[in-house]
Known about the structure:
Number of strands: 16
Helix content: 40-55%
CATH topology of the largest domain: Beta-Lactamase
Bound molecules: guanosine-5'-triphosphate
Low-confidence stretches: 218-223
Distance between the termini: 120 Å
Mean pLDDT: 90
CATH architecture of the largest domain: 2-Layer Sandwich
Strand content: 25-35%
Number of helices: 15
Amino acid sequence: MAMNKQLNPASFMALLLDAVCAVDSDGRFVFVSAAGEQIFGYPPEEMVGRSMLAFIHPADRERTLAAAGKIMTGQPNPHFENRYIRKDGQVVHIMWSARWSESNQMRIAVARDVTERKRAESMQAALFAISEAAHAAENLSALYQHIHQIIGELLPAQNFAVALYDAASRQLSVPYQVDTRPADTPLTPPDLCELGTQVIGSGQPLLWQRSPPQPADDCEALGDPLLQSWLGVPLCTKQGVIGVLILKSYHVSMAYTRQHQELLQYVSTQVATAIERKQLHSRLQHMAQHDALTGLPNRALLNDKLQDALAKAIRHNSRVALLYLDLDNFKHINDSLGHSAGDLLLQAVAQRLSQCVRGADSVARIGGDEFIVLIEDLQRQEHASLVAEKIQQAFAMPIDIKTSTLHINVSVGVAHFPEHGSNGQQLLSHADDMMYQMKKQRRGLPAL
Length: 448
Ligand SMILES: Nc1nc2c(ncn2[C@@H]2O[C@H](COP(=O)(O)OP(=O)(O)OP(=O)(O)O)[C@@H](O)[C@H]2O)c(=O)[nH]1
């Protein structure tokens, strides 16, 4: 009891880890306890008299004003979170417990630094978001974009790239890259691939800083966004290192640190797994939609493309044509030269056909020696016959397979939308009939 009498409550306040603050009705700090310096980085006397808005993260100002308004109507808020910018520029997450004092006309609040908890939460959230993205993203490039966005919420990632390593060809490719450096400025060393290759080789992260740092004024005067800082973290899976996550900074004021490196490493395994899963999915999808021998779309993909083309043609009141192609006497080539020569011929035919059409058109292999050309957005009906003629001319040239020079003929049948059918099935069937008629006519002719 005797001891209690000697205690000075003000000395308790100085020992508190949380800061006690008082803010007047205009939002100005009236009092900040000693712990404020630890939390906000400013000595209390530098905060007192200034508006709280001067310290709050711009993105949280409006929300904070709304919460303060409610507190001033007499509703205490024991769990309000916002971000402050410390004197050293770091962002600090604060949990406020605040109420209005009618007699003092002030908000009385206790501030607790919850930055560590927030960081752990956002790291967990990032892991979860990356794994979600692996399922939700439609394709690999959508996944890279999503990963960029998630990483950008954890650390500065204005300049971000995903580089992938193909162990078979020992090549590093960059399927995703966002770089704020103007495209026409010359690349300043070090080269992205050079550092990326080092990360792949060592399987270790690499943090590179320009040394000595280029003064900011020099860079601005030159208009040259010189690379200042580079962070590369390997993407490791059970198969080994499959690539590198890369962050770059062109600003002297933003240099990557070991802390950034740890954050990026923390998410990199999840990123690697997500990319690997999506790559496998893309490969399976490609296999399900393409012919393994020629690499052309197969019947399933052709049907999808045909359906899309017809839907578009109906919307835009445009035309579509289908060419049904079948090689003549292909069986004879298989029988006389062997199946592998037949395979090579089919590959050569696929290549030659692809060269006869525009990028917007499609060539598909739908059976043994049967191919389809889908011509979209046809300006005039005659154009399909022109493409058919072009194909016939292309096949007038012999094809060299192994040691043989082969002369092959192609029978072609054409169907037009809307004249020969209102759906894909009807059009394919009509083109097949036309092709068969041509084949029959040819059979009636003397052998070439
Ligand atoms: N090499 C090879 N042959 C294939 C493949 N798929 C189907 N074939 C063969 O292709 C041939 C197709 O025979 P047909 O439909 O009678 O064709 P054709 O000999 O050109 O006869 P016409 O079309 O009447 O001129 C068969 O011998 C099949 O075994 C393949 O992937 N590779």
